[in-house]
Design goal:
Blueprint lengths: L12 E2 L6 E2 L5 E4 L2 E4 L3 H8 L14
Antiparallel strand pairs: 1-2, 3-4
């Protein structure tokens, strides 16, 4: 006999960078198709903002 109970199990939500599961109630950031946990936020920001990176004294001159 088959069970008539609804299945409540959902697919896990994984961090795009580290692959760790993001738990229910845990904050994460969704940006440009990526889902990023709090531990990876700094690395994600560095990657996303890389085109804006400048080095003092070596800025591009117009």
């Amino acid at each position: 006999m088959r069970s008539t109970h609804c299945r409540t199990r959902r697919h896990p939500l994984l961090c795009t960078l580290c692959g760790r599961e993001i738990a229910i109630g845990e904050e994460y950031w969704a940006c440009n198709g990526a889902r990023v946990c709090a531990a990876c936020l700094g690395e994600f920001a560095r990657q996303e903002l890389a085109p804006c990176r400048e080095i003092r004294g070596k800025e591009a001159r117009p």
